[in-house]
Design brief:
DNA-binding, globular, homodimer, 134 residues
DNA sequence: AAACCGGTGCAATAGAGTTGCAAAGTTTTA
DNA sequence: TAAAACTTTGCAACTCTATTGCACCGGTTT
């Protein structure tokens, strides 16, 4: 799918900036943080990127990941993702190369919660060493 | 067990400050962040609390939890905890009262990782509404 | 053309975490 | 017991990410 169409499909007006950012995200196979994203460009404003990511997130183009590094990371949503609990997947953070990956082939296992606890979201991050760093 | 003994058992010198902090932690049934902890006292230094928590963590009296709120929370380890993956448990964060609880009755379910990924730690936080807020 | 509006850029702020340094307190050693 | 050595504590300062306010710019509508 063309990048522009992807934006339109999620009701995001395709500005030059947004096309650039989405392209960068699509070129990646790991999640990216704001500062990292900033470094992929020669000269952009951090705030603009910040708001671009927020916009993408609100429109479910990307989801945010808190991998415990203190920096929020973002990764592309899968086709048709609504960011509901059942759409969520595990994330893996490599303690060596510090990359964070989506583990999309396994869903998050269900956990028995104590009585009367209502589930709304799940965040599961596994840390270790990724295959490239082995 | 007396509070002082608990410290000694984990090889932490029982200073007045540490006794106070550990007591506060034991009075709680939910995890606590640095700022919250600070507010439980009339007049303490943030840095001292910070370092006290770090010391406790290093000596496995408490474990830290990243519940995605941006503030690291701390909660008492269970008896005999070595903070290994198999000692870890799920945490529950209430979106209403913002408290974070340890769900100690269920371990973290194992997840099949992609080939050649090595697990070292797991952080699993479930968000929703706790029984008190229902 | 004027008013409007979303998007962008710059500057400034907020808040958590962290570090350096010196004072106070404890323990060890001569 | 006194001096030296080490640990803990308190204060101040700083880092870094996230976030907000405000002004400007470009395109669109009236």
């Amino acid at each position: 799918m063309k990048i522009e169409d992807k934006l339109l499909k999620n009701k995001v007006k395709p500005t030059a900036m947004r096309l650039l950012v989405l392209r960068k995200l699509m070129e990646r196979n790991s999640a990216i943080g704001l500062t990292e994203l900033e470094n992929l460009f020669d000269k952009v404003d951090r705030t603009t990127l910040y708001r671009t990511l927020k916009t993408f997130e609100k429109n479910k183009l990307i989801h945010s990941i808190d991998d415990g590094t203190g920096m929020t990371k973002y990764a592309l949503c899968l086709e048709g993702c609504e960011c509901n609990p059942e759409d969520l997947h595990v994330h893996f953070h490599c303690n060596n190369c510090k990359e964070t990956f989506c583990v999309t082939d396994t869903g998050i296992p269900l956990v028995q919660l104590p009585m009367n606890f209502k589930l709304e979201e799940i965040n599961m991050v596994i840390k270790g060493i990724c295959s490239s760093c082995k």
